[in-house]
Amino acid sequence: MPAVFVLIWSTGFIVAKYGLPYAPPLTFLAIRYFLSIVCFLVWIVLARAAWPQSRQQWLHLAVTGVLMHAAYLGGVWVAVKAGMGSGLTALIVGLQPVLTALWVSWVAQGSDEGTRVSGRQWAGLGLGLGGLLLVVSRKFGTGTEVTAVTLACTVFALISITAGTLYQKRFMKPTDVRTANVIQLAAAFVVTLPLAFFETEAITWNAHFLGAMAWSVLALTLGGSSLLYLLIQRGAATSVTSLLYLVPPTTALMAWLLFDEPITVTTVIGTALTALGVSLVVRPAKPQAA
Q: What pLDDT, in 10s, does the model give residues 49-58?
């Protein structure tokens, strides 16, 4: 499941490269949310999936939907559309594992509840961050446009997905992933649609746009978002978010295969460090002898 999640999630920037030149970002996302809701509803009816029973669970799902869909994706896509390079965007959002670990460690201090971040995991987080910096380092100095708007959008996206992950892990009870996604996406759609009306760029209906939309709905939302939801429910927040360290290196490999973008020795070394760092974070602790 983690490997499939990383592969799917890594296609996000590929989709942006294909789709964003032909549609404004928030309009694209609003359509994506709507179509995803329709697909999930069909799936729910056919499978007779159960809906959450309490209003509190509905509220918690709505909050995570706003944070992890509307705010996170909105921030990233607006920044990319405004001209921020994918490498710098990935670097900023890629700080999520460190931010999550800092929060988890702070909350766990002096408490037997929660999961403390071990020394080995801190070492893994450091290696992962170092590998990530190496992978995206070649993106710097290549004309990347960094403005107050693009920087604010990516930092906002980083804070949003970190808060959404921690919130979901803390408050969400086990829920059917299909009905949970519908509630999350509906909340994201309600927030995103009014903002999309302020965009003036028209949609160019062509094969690139339709292909990007289809992949966004079927793979990224129905597949990637569902896997992320399941991973958060089943694992510790620090271990799950550390998987996102693997996204920029995987994206670099995809860009090499699809767009013939070069992979340097630095990229290979960075990828190896990242993989080693993630393995240190997610590896189960050895049971202590009695």
A: 999 989 999 9
